[in-house]
Design brief:
30% strand, alpha+beta, transmembrane helix, Jelly Rolls, Phage tail protein beta-alpha-beta fold
Length: 327
């Protein structure tokens, strides 16, 4: 009997597998009666766990204590034939419930980070550099440096949830019309079915830029729908929303690993470089701030990128008192 990849079987039960994975699971089920039986048992356990796992207040340790107490009490007296029959049925039910709890603990403890999101909230935090995380439903999340978020996609829940606490992230969301992908900042809610977009939260402002698909942004009951190449700035204090077009593609540097400048003002590129490298770059003369620049810089050495800017615009760049001056 061929064994089935556990992750694929879980995704199939969640109706989140793609067409190839679905076909593979269905063929595995049909090729052997033992496979069919195993699948039905696993399916029954997952369905039976609906009420238990949806209620976060369930104390698993207390449930186990009650189970063992009932078991010990029932075994203290000599059972009749009918009692033995009932006990066998009761034991099957109790064993199944116990298996649900044990399975939940095992999955939470040993599944990859993305798998644990089916049972609890998973914390993600980047520090000095961006990180990319692929989650079990096929969605990819890229966190820029100094970003903190949590996500969960409980297998019996109606949506996939992300809480963006600080920083910025790029989401490439696997489409699932039955389970929307919802991002929550302090007061702003962003809902998508399947799309790619950038979200940044800083202070009282949340910024959303859509690359593909569409995104719904909501605050205080007010909603705005964004299409590709549209940008929305939301003031979380006043609820004011401002829709514009992105002035450049620099917001995506931590995903593409490039700073792409296409005839943008020099000051916009410098601002992004300061954020990316925690640098202190100053433009010495006002007339240089609006100087257009077209170039592509790799997200690598800052000194090399400054050399490219110097040569491209024929400028002087100097270092003094911890500040980098462009003049």
């Amino acid at each position: 009997m061929e064994t089935m990849n556990e992750e694929k079987l879980i995704k199939y039960l969640l109706q989140e597998s793609d067409s190839e994975e679905t076909k593979a699971v269905q063929e595995w089920i049909s090729e052997d009666e033992a496979n069919q039986k195993q699948f039905e048992e696993v399916q029954w356990i997952w369905k039976s766990s609906k009420v238990l796992l949806e209620k976060s207040e369930v104390d698993e340790n207390l449930a186990w204590q009650r189970f063992t107490k009932l078991r010990n009490e029932s075994s203290s007296a000599a059972p009749t034939q009918n009692q033995r029959f009932l006990q066998r049925g009761w034991f099957k039910a109790a064993a199944a419930v116990t298996l649900i709890f044990v399975s939940a603990w095992v999955y939470s403890a040993f599944l990859p980070q993305s798998g644990r999101a089916y049972y609890s909230s998973v914390e993600l935090q980047s520090e000095g550099s961006p990180i990319e995380v692929a989650i079990l439903d096929g969605t990819s999340i890229t966190l820029n440096k100094n970003t903190s978020l949590s996500y969960s996609q409980k297998f019996l829940g109606k949506q996939r949830n992300v809480s963006l606490e600080s920083g910025e992230a790029f989401f490439d969301v696997k489409r699932n019309e039955n389970k929307p992908f919802v991002i929550q900042t302090e007061k702003v809610q962003i809902t998508v079915l399947g799309t790619s977009f950038h979200v940044k939260t800083a202070g009282n402002t949340t910024e959303v830029i859509v690359v593909t698909g569409s995104v719904q942004v909501e605050i205080d009951g007010k909603k705005e729908v964004l299409k590709p190449d549209e940008k929305l700035r939301v003031n979380q204090e006043t609820g004011e929303m401002e829709k514009t077009l992105p002035s450049n593609k620099l917001y995506n540097y931590y995903v593409s690993k490039r700073f792409q400048a296409d005839r943008i003002p020099l000051e916009e590129l410098v601002k992004t470089l300061n954020e990316a490298y925690d640098a202190n770059i100053e433009i010495a003369r006002d007339e240089l701030r609006t100087l257009p620049i077209t170039t592509t810089l790799e997200y690598g050495s800052l000194s090399k990128n400054l050399d490219v800017i110097r040569e491209t615009l024929n400028l002087k760049i100097s270092l003094s008192d911890g500040k980098i001056r462009i003049e």
